[in-house]
Amino acid sequence: MSRMEVGRFVRRFDAIAAAVAIVAAAFVLAVGAIAASASTSTLRGNASTVNAASDCSGATAWHFVLPAGGDSPRPTFVSITAVFKSAGTVTYSGPFTHNDTQTPDDGTGFVTPIADTLLSATAVASGSDADDFFVLSSIICSGASPSAISTTVFDAATNAAWAGIEVAPASAYDTSTVTGSATGTVSYIFFTNGTCNGDGTDAGTVAVGTHSITESALAAGSYSFQARYNGNATYAGSTSPCEPFSVTAPPTGPAETSITTVVFNAATNAALIGGNLVAGGSVYDTSAVTGGATGTVSYKFWTNGDCGVSENVAGTDAGTALALGSHSSPEGPLTARSYSFEAVYSSDNTALFTNATGSCELFSVTARPAGPAETSITTVVFNAATNAALIGGNLVAGGSVYDTSTVLAGATGTISYKFWANADCGVSEDIAGTDAGTALALGSHSSAEGPLTAGSYSFEAVYTSDNTSLFTNATGSCEHFTVAILPPGPESTTTRTAVFDAATNAALIDGNLTTGGSAYDTSTVTGATGTVSYLFWTNGDCGVSEDVAGTHAGTALALGAHSSAEGPLAAGSYSFEAVYSSDNTALFTGSTSACEPFTVVSGGVGGSTVGPSPTATPTGGVLAATGSNSPAQGLALFLIAFGLLAMVGGALAWKRRRS
Length: 659
Description:
By secondary structure, the protein is mainly beta. The chain contains two helices and 46 strands. The chain has six domains: 3-38 and 631-658; 41-140, no CATH class; 149-247, Immunoglobulin-like; 259-366, Sandwich (Immunoglobulin-like); 377-484, Sandwich (Immunoglobulin-like); 495-601, Immunoglobulins (Immunoglobulin-like, Sandwich). Helix 1 (3-38) packs antiparallel against helix 2 (631-658).
């Protein structure tokens, strides 16, 4: 090739290389702009991130929420940095995707080591195009419902709640009760003052339901315990109120103990009236000892009125070393004369309480009357459906009844009932009644008889004495009643309903509930008997517009019972319907309530997973773009390098041509 041809080639090559370099530079600028719009940006949560309505304090699990709406695909969080009151700055590395508005989309939330308070948060997010960066508009805490913890101090010597009379040296431990079925651990702190002031000393971290370690050899003074529930994924942590208690100084000598006694009738378990008992009866002695005393009680019994003094005789054992509060053994049946009891208290700590002997407790047994007391018996027939006495002695056909009886006060024995399908207990027809209960305890009613057709019926009650020397047997008057003809048709019923907030157990205000809440239905059916069932729909017209069946929210429940709680519920329309089923369609028709619609409206509820309104105004600036090189940027760099090499090659060729 001639020198002239080489020169022309080089000049052409230089022109091509320069053009390539210019194109590459333009491409880089374009790609850079595109990459900047599609790379990551730092997004800051706005002022609603932490607010009183959400109250994200004391939680251990957190969710971060984007506004609803936006382009598809939704952006992905590369990382989230949260600042907590106790844990400080915590960074959660992604990527994190979300379901509509919530991150992460698996529902687990981000976890802190202990219950904490969220102060602020930022997120590094990848957007879909230049005009669609998503701002972190709110943060909701979930997975940790509020908890409560209460404490009770126990006396380690008696394993009973602290009574406030414990004497030094004493021992104590703390117990706690945490909200519902909360699990996890409880930490106890013990203070040597009554106000939980200062740091206190560790009294153990134990499983929920376990008491603290025992604090022993406590001198006279004021003390206190405080417990902290450490929370878990279900319940947030909480701290109990300060639990003060005191230990009193030991007395200089034992307290003087007193003991009082009262003799009881063994048949009636009531104190003797006037200190007298009718011959043939039995008795036992009771005692009460000075408050706080511990030990045992023993009883002696004499067949004279002065505990053996006048006759110089020892009493018979009526109970030895019994627990305080126990009565003596029964003594009897007794004949007419004078008797007496004596109770002896034995202290189990004579340094604190002296032994004591009660006063002689005398009583008399009077001669039995010439004959047994004449027993009387009265009866009343009751409506088995209403458990109320028949009004005017009448019942509507289809109903059932039972008989009741009252026997002379003090009488003992049993009661039996007979039932007749006529009005005079079988006299006019000379027929035996049917058994409606035999040898029942006094106060028991007969068996229920029915359903009965229109006509006349009767009951009779028979009292059988278990001590005919004291009370005669007795038969009640014939108790007749009438069953009236059934009305022409059953009575129509009306079922009314009201939807209640499951959290507050109050009726919904204006038929509205906040997102994340739960609701149940209630019903009222007046006068009728039977059951009620409930259905629930996820629309506002009980499935009419969509022709769908509701889901069961309670079947064949007792009247007055509410439905199962439905929730937590997302924003939208819902409805309940109640169905009353009569247990006697001859008296009451079944009925179905009107459709009971209600609405769940959006709102920031702590622990819910519902995002803020799509119209929430984002705050915080979009910072300078960052991120790694894209494939387009790599191609541009290659073209620039190629252009530069071409220009260098052309220059070298020109130099050779001139030389």
